[in-house]
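Following the same procedure, sequence and fold were stored together, as reproduced here.

>
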Amino acid sequence: MKRLILLAFLAAAALAQPRSGGELRVAIQAEPRTLDPHLASDEPSEIVRYLTAGALVRMNRKTQAPEPDLAVSWKIVAPGRRIRFELRPGASFDTGKAVTPQDVCYSFVRATDPKTDSPNGEALRGVAGAVTCAPAGAGAVELAFEKPLPQPERWMDGIAVVPAGSQPPFPALGPFRVAEVKPGVHVLLARNPKYGRKDAGGRPLPYLDSIRLEIQRNRDFELMRFRRGELHLVNNLDAESFDRVRAAQPQAARNLGVSLDTEQLWFNQVPASPVAAHKKAWFQSRAFRAAVSRAIRRDDMVKVVYRGQASPALSPVSPANRFWHNGKVTPPPADATEALKLLAAEGFRLAGGVLRDRTGQPVEFSIITNAGNKSRERMAALIQQDLTELGMRVTLAPLDFPSLIDRITKSFDYEACLLGLISSELDPNGQMNVWLSSAPNHQWNPNQKQPATAWEAEVDKLMQAQAAEADLKARKRAFDRVQEIAAEQAPFIYLLNRHALVAVSEEVGNADPVVLRPQTMWNAERLYLKAGPRAAR
C-alpha cells in the first residue's frame, strides 16, 4: 500500500514539473522591421528584441519593479548622476563569448549615438543628456549622465547589450536566439544554449525548444487557427474578437483589466493652422474643451463600442500604471446641462437646437480618425450624437492612416482628431515628448518656442522638476499635479482605457499574462507545453 502511495506521489510530482522541449506557436501581425535590438520600435521587432536580447536590468512586467538580468546588483554612486552595475559572472552570448564591461559600454555608446537613431537610446538621451560608460574593474561598469536621471535602473530594460565593436546581426543574450527568418512566413526562435539561467530546482531555462512567430495579418484567420490548436497564444485582442474566443473557449479568454493604452480626442490649437479664426478661439477655450468632455457619455462607449472591455478615463495615466497614476483624477458622469452652463459662461448660446458663439457663429467642426478602425469610427459616431445635445454640428471624416498623420504633424489641416496612444513606458520621463510645450508630440500645439499658456508653462516646470528630482515622493507629487492640470485643461480629452485582452491555450504551462507588453510572453523562458496529444505535436 505504501509503495502505491509513493508511486502515486511521484507520478503527481512528475506531472507538476514543467516539461522541457516543444515549440510554442504565436502569430504576429507583421514582419519585424528590424532584428537590430537598438532599432526596434514596431511591436514585432520589440517582441524579438525582448526574447533574444539581454539588458543590465529587466523591468518585471508583473510587479512593475526592476530586477537583475546581466547585472546582479547596482548601486547609486551619485544620486541621479552615476550608477554602478556589477555584472553576472559567467554571462555569455550564444556564441560562447563572455560578456565584458567593454560590451556594455559599447552598447550604450551605440544606442545613444544620434547617428544610430535608436528609439530607446534617443529616449534615454533625451532625458539624461549625454550618457558615458566606463568599466569599473573586470566585472562592473559605471554609467554617468549629463542631466539628473531619477531611478536610472528603470531605463536599462530597453538598451540591449551587444558585443563590443560588432554590427548586426548580433548574437543572442536572451533565452532564445534567431534561428531562421522566412519573409512573409515566420521568425523561428530557438533555445539559447548559453543562456545560463536556471529555475529554483536547478533546471536550465528556457524550457521550450523554440518559439515560432508566424506572420499572420488576418486576425480572423489567427483566431480560427487558435481554436484549432495551431496557435498557443493570442495578444492584443479587440473586444469583438475577445467575445468570440470567450464564447467558444471560455477558459482561454483572459481579461487582464485596464491597459496602459488610452483613447483621446483633441482640438487643433496650432496658431499657424488653416483652421478658421473663430474656431481656433473655441478650441483654445478651456471652457469649450471642458464642456465637450463633460457631455461625452464615456460609459456608453465602454458598453456599446468595447462591450464592457474598457474603463472610462480622464487622466493621461492609466490605473494600470500602479505607482504613477493619480487616483484622484476620475471622470465625472456625463451631464449635458453642466456642459451648457460652462459654454454659457463663455458666451455661447443654444437657440433652436443650434449652439452659437458670442459673435453668432454656429458651432460646427469635423473630427478626423483613422478609416477602417471600427472601434474609433463607432466612438466618433457616439461623440457626434452626444454633442448634438449641446447644439453642436459634428462631421466625421475618417482618413487613411498616412493622410491622418500628415494632417496632425505637417499640414495641421484638421479641426479635431480622435486617436489612441499605445504606451509601454511607466516612468513620467517617457511622456516628456508629449507634455513639454516644445515637444513634437504635444499634439494640440506642438513645437512651441515658448509656452502658449500659463498652464503649459506650469506643466513644463513640473515635468522638468520631476525629471531632475531624485526623491521619488517629490517626483510623484509633481506628476500628480501634471495629471490634475491635464484633467482641468483638457488639451487631450481622455475617453477610456482599453482592457488588455488575450487568449491562452490550456496546453501552455506557467502562463501568467500581464498588461504590459509582451503580454503573454513576458516570462517566455518559463513557459512550457503540457503533455497531451496536441502539445506533443
In short: The two ends are 37 Å apart (CA to CA).
